[in-house]
Design brief:
Protein name: T-Q ester bond containing domain-containing protein
Number of helices: 6
Organism: [Clostridium] leptum DSM 753
Keywords: Membrane, Transmembrane, Transmembrane helix
Shape: rod-shaped
Number of strands: 34
Largest sheet: 8 strands, antiparallel
Helix content: 10-25%
Strand content: 35-45%
Pfam families: TQ (PF18202)
InterPro entries: TQ (IPR041100)
Length: 637
């Protein structure tokens, strides 16, 4: 077997030997014809058949690849598909050979109308080429080569005599020879006219000129980028030339790799076709494939010069493309609330937070796990308070509840729930916004400072007065209405005094102050009063400050000042009035028988003594009056 090299230098060792003429008669002297006939009888057809491997975007045919399977005449002789005419070679059409490996037949067409038939060619060797020279040596441009390939690929394989005749006429005309153009009075026109295929051949040439532009077509498929589970997705296939012209009539197979569903469609006048697929548990992944006429020629070259080359028909190239949709990634929204009353605040002693996780774009029927942790909003660090929940999505959207237990010790802090959604071990969604109000729970803190309104100290007069308790709060939810209520406690007994007060306020910010005014009546002198305060919202206590030993909450009521005992004023001794000394009476002569002064016993001595006594008494009274008057003057000072 002689090695033959193709146009681009790739060698092949396989040949085909024609057993009968193509569409012309065997020419030459009788002896030569007999010897050639005997040669053809001794040789069987050898050929290697190779498919044309094409990519979805960049397509090409490898030159020099030979067909792998031997073709032989059907029934030992050539079977023609075409029309017998009285001009030219007396036949117009193609002829068939059988693939010995598969039993399938293939239709061939003569490539050189001015040369001897293939029965004069001896051995034939299969070649692929992107270039074609006519039998006169003229090099056809790539566009015309692809147009010939288009006609052979689309219409060449046929059992219709008329169609085969039209293909033969079109192939001759596309080689550019003037004698074979389909114009009146040309040989090509006469051949086609006799076969009755002129208009059909002209139509083939027109279509080839429209869609065979010298380069491969492009197949594309598109699906929506994002689809929802359980929806119906439209896949659009498009076949276009390199210049962007849509190619109609192309059969395209669309297959959803996710579900295994296959739909066959044909492109419309604009080169597109659509199919619909229902989404399952996975997003659509659509693969498109199509078989279209090749852009290169596959021909058989004779080992003997002077004979025609024969063109293989029905060659196609495969186009493919893929596109896939995705389900939108699930997204989360969470709302963290106090389990006790459904607000965003938990008391300082702790409580239970229920974080309702609302998910969207989940895949129905798929199990998920949501894992959460409470974060400190100020520091941005985790608190170690964790919780999780498992659920199976009943629909694309739904909710799951994650329950956190908050212990004591978090007063004055804002806790933010961070949530992560898992599909198995894969994270599919997160909601981690440290500033998201809906994810935030406040744990309020309260401190108070109670002072005497009169002078802002911590001491109240014994008779009572007014205490102003400034309640300072931290980490309450802004914009809400609150009530701060207090009662004064007896520090010594720890019991309430019954002295109460309250004030309402709307929190303008997370932190602020509110004043509570207590009126302390008399009766608490000497007692230490401690203000106990609570802050409530909607009837629920959210914060308190009740420390019986807190100095800032304490006001002392002064003890009463003792009333001084007045010095008693002595009662003055009355001074007797001075008595003038009585004159000594002149003795009157006593009547007869009466007693006379001179008759007093003792006589003059006794009278003198009586007078002295009277004088001493007078002097003592005068002294007493003087002394008493001086004492009275001294007390008045």
């Amino acid at each position: 077997m002689k090695e033959v090299t193709d146009a681009v230098g790739t060698s092949t060792h396989h040949r085909i030997v024609a057993t009968t003429p193509c569409l012309s008669t065997v020419q030459g002297p009788p002896k030569q014809r007999k010897r050639m006939h005997m040669l053809l009888q001794r040789n069987r057809v050898g050929v290697i058949s190779a498919g044309v491997a094409m990519g979805a975007i960049a397509l090409g045919v490898t030159p020099g690849i030979a067909h792998a399977d031997p073709y032989v005449p059907v029934g030992g002789r050539t079977h023609f598909v075409g029309t017998k005419i009285t001009v030219g070679a007396h036949w117009i059409g193609g002829y068939t050979l059988r693939d010995q490996a598969t039993g399938k037949t293939s239709l061939f067409y003569c490539g050189d109308p001015e040369r001897m038939g293939p029965s004069s060619g001896g051995g034939y060797h299969g070649k692929s080429a992107t270039q074609w020279r006519t039998d006169t040596g003229a090099l056809l441009d790539q566009k015309h080569v692809s147009q010939i390939a288009y006609v052979l690929g689309k219409w060449g394989q046929t059992t219709s005599n008329k169609q085969a005749s039209a293909v033969d006429a079109a192939v001759y005309a596309l080689q550019g020879k003037s004698d074979y153009q389909l114009h009146p009075s040309t040989l090509g026109w006469k051949r086609a006219q006799q076969a009755g295929v002129t208009s059909r051949a002209q139509s083939m040439i027109t279509e080839a000129g429209r869609y065979a532009t010298g380069s491969a077509w492009r197949l594309s498929v598109s699906v929506p980028k994002s689809v929802t589970p359980g929806s119906t997705v439209q896949a659009t296939a498009s076949v276009r030339t390199r210049t962007g012209r849509g190619v109609p009539g192309v059969a395209v197979t669309l297959r959803d790799q996710a579900t295994g569903k296959t739909v066959k469609v044909t492109t419309s006048t604009n080169g597109t076709a659509v199919a619909h697929f229902a989404t399952g548990s996975s997003a659509p992944n659509v693969h498109a494939s199509a078989s279209v006429p090749a852009t290169t020629l596959r021909y058989w070259a004779p080992s003997k010069s002077g004979a025609q080359r024969i063109l293989m028909s029905g060659l196609t190239m495969g186009l493919s493309a893929s596109a896939h949709s995705t389900f939108p990634a699930p997204n989360l929204k969470t709302t963290a609330l106090d389990k006790a009353d459904g607000d965003h605040m938990v008391v300082a002693k702790g409580g239970t937070i229920v974080d309702t996780v609302a998910y969207h774009d989940a895949i129905p029927g798929k199990p998920y796990k949501v894992v959460g942790e409470m974060m400190d909003q100020v520091t941005g660090k985790p608190t170690g308070i964790k919780a999780s929940a498992k659920f199976t999505a009943k629909a694309e959207s739904g909710t799951a509840k994650v329950v956190f237990t908050v212990p004591t010790g978090y007063a004055g802090r804002k806790l933010v729930a961070f949530e992560t959604l898992y599909d198995g071990a894969k994270i599919v969604a997160e909601h981690k916004d440290i500033h998201d109000h809906s994810q935030t729970v406040w744990v309020p803190k309260v401190a108070t400072n109670a002072v005497d309104k009169a002078d802002n100290d911590h001491v109240l007069p014994a008779e009572g007065g007014t205490i102003v308790d400034v309640a300072r709060y931290w980490d309450v939810e802004p914009g809400k209405d609150y009530v701060v209520a207090g009662e004064l406690m007896d520090r010594a007994t720890g019991k309430p005094t019954g002295i109460k007060a309250s004030a309402k306020f709307t929190a303008k910010a997370e932190s602020g102050t509110a004043k509570v005014v207590f009126t302390v009546p008399t009766g608490y002198a000497g007692k230490d009063l401690v203000a106990f305060e609570t802050i409530s919202m909607g009837g629920k206590i959210v914060g308190s400050h009740q420390d019986i030993n807190d100095h800032s909450q304490t006001v002392s009521v002064s003890k009463p000042t003792p009333t001084p005992t007045p010095t008693p004023t002595p009662t003055p001794t009355p001074t007797p009035a001075a008595v003038a000394p009585k004159p000594t009476p002149t003795p009157t002569p006593a009547p007869s028988g009466g007693v006379q002064t001179g008759d007093v016993p003792g006589g003059p001595v006794v009278g003198w003594i009586a007078g002295g006594v009277a004088l001493i008494a007078f002097a003592g009274g005068a002294y007493a009056m003087v002394v008493g008057g001086r004492r009275h003057d001294t007390h008045g000072e």
